[in-house]
């Protein structure tokens, strides 16, 4: 920004003129006084009237000069006041106003961010009283209006926390705690904050995060590893046991055949498990290529029914397939959808007692085609429905193993439908049956 130097130059010139005039006034006054004094001394001014006239003239001269100087001083003062107001005071005032607006805007922005943060924030002063708290913190820790201090909030969780240690001890400069709040797990990070100028501690900030989902995922991961180990260990143990038995002695052909059948069955079970795990891995890592095409869902449902006709006949089930509307072609990976349908039908056949009824409906709702498979099998308890799509989760593990299940079928079905833009929903009642609805987009 360029500064106008002209007014400042004028002020300097005027002040210089004033100084010159003051100097002239002093010189004139001194000279005139000296002249009068000399005239009196030499006797040229003996008449008192002449002295008075000389003094009057001197006073007039001084008055003129004083008036001129005062006028210039007043004008200069006014001009300087206007100049300072315009060039210094007004810009400074504007700068202060701008700074205040900026600080208010930043404060409003911080408050807005704190208000809408998913993490909870609580600031405690040096005495443990709440300075600041956002809604997320109140919700995550179930803080009531009666909670005003550090102790009020955290003592009810029976945490061994000392605020003084958190503030003053270097080794406890930050501390992380896990707290169970009803059905949630939250992580609280305590960290002291200091005054920037004095570097003295002023309080503690607590940052609260909901880690319930992370804890659940970690638990599921551990269960998954344990389940995989168990599922692989069981057939391997069986195969090794029967193989060692065959190697230790000689048996008749019938016994050998029975042992070999067990070995073959367990080997196939292991192969299915490994195949399912590989499929899940490919789906998780997006390594499986989805080849979408248009095809008729009703025709595919009938093909799947025919493929499982032998299993259906063994158990004496009645299977009926109905196409309830003019269903447009669906757009998805045909092989994937076939695998989903076969998986659901296989489960219905396995878990429906002999002589049961299985009905298949193919229809169209909005922009999705659907296939609904209803059986009158043993059903699933209500408490297990929300976990039925978890990997290796089975309602009756021993029975599932006897029937050759890996516990991954529904997990794979859900992953496949997610990749193809579809969905799966399951309803069931114990001893009444199960209803599975699969939706697939038509475009």
Overview of this structure, please?
- The structure is a single chain.
- This protein is of the alpha+beta class and 443 residues long.
- The chain has four domains: 6-113; 117-210, Beta-Lactamase (2-Layer Sandwich), CATH 3.30.450.20; 217-284, Helix Hairpins; 292-441, Heat Shock Protein 90 (2-Layer Sandwich).
- It has twelve helices and twelve strands.
- The protein has helices at 6-42, 48-116, 135-140, 150-154, 163-168, 212-248, 253-284, 297-307, 309-315, 334-350, 397-402, 409-419; strands spanning 120-125, 130-133, 175-181, 184-194, 201-210, 292-295, 318-323, 330-333, 357-365, 368-375, 423-429, 433-441.
- Strand 4 (184-194) and strand 5 (201-210) form a beta hairpin.
- Helix 6 (212-248) runs antiparallel to helix 7 (253-284) and helix 8 crosses helix 10.
- It is elongated, with a radius of gyration of 48 Å.
- It starts with 5 loop residues before the first helix and ends with a strand.
């Amino acid at each position: 920004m360029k500064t106008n130097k002209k007014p400042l130059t004028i002020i300097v010139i005027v002040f210089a003129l004033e100084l010159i005039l003051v100097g002239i006034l002093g010189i004139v006054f001194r000279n005139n006084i000296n002249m009068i004094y000399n005239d009196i001394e030499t006797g040229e001014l003996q008449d008192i009237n002449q002295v008075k006239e000389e003094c009057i003239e001197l006073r007039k001269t001084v008055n003129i000069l004083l008036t001129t100087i005062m006028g210039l001083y007043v004008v200069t003062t006014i001009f300087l006041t206007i100049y300072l107001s315009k060039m210094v005071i007004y810009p400074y005032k504007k700068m202060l106003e701008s700074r205040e607006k900026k600080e208010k805007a930043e404060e409003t922005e911080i408050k807005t961010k704190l208000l809408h943060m998913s993490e909870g924030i609580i600031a405690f002063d040096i005495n443990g009283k709440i300075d600041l708290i956002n809604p997320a913190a109140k919700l995550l820790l179930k803080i009531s209006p009666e909670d005003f201090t550090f102790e009020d909030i955290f003592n009810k969780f029976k945490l061994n926390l000392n605020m003084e240690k958190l503030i003053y001890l270097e080794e406890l400069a930050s501390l992380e705690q896990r707290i169970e709040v009803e059905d949630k797990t939250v992580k609280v990070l305590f960290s002291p904050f200091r005054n920037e100028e004095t570097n003295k501690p002023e309080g503690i900030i607590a940052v609260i995060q909901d880690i319930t989902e992370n804890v659940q995922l970690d638990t599921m991961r551990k269960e998954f590893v344990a389940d995989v180990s168990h599922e692989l260990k069981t057939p391997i143990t069986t195969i090794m046991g029967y193989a060692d038995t065959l190697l230790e002695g000689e048996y008749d052909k019938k016994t050998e055949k029975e042992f070999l059948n067990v070995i073959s069955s367990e080997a196939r079970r292991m192969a299915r498990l490994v195949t399912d795990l590989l499929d899940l891995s490919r789906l998780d890592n997006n390594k499986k290529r989805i080849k979408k095409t248009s095809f008729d869902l009703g025709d595919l449902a009938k093909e799947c029914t025919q493929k499982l006709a032998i299993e259906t006949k063994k158990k004496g089930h009645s299977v009926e397939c109905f196409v309830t509307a003019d269903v447009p072609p669906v757009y998805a990976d045909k092989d994937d959808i076939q695998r989903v349908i076969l998986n659901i039908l296989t489960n219905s056949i396995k878990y429906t007692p002999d002589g049961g009824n299985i009905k298949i409906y193919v229809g169209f709702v909005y922009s999705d085609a659907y296939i609904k498979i209803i059986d009158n099998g043993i059903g699933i308890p209500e408490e297990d429905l929300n976990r039925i799509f978890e990997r290796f989760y089975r309602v009756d593990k021993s029975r599932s193993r006897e029937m050759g299940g890996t516990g991954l079928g529904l997990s794979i079905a859900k992953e496949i439908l997610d990749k193809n833009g579809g969905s799966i929903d399951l309803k069931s009642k114990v001893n009444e049956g199960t209803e599975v609805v699969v939706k697939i987009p038509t475009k």
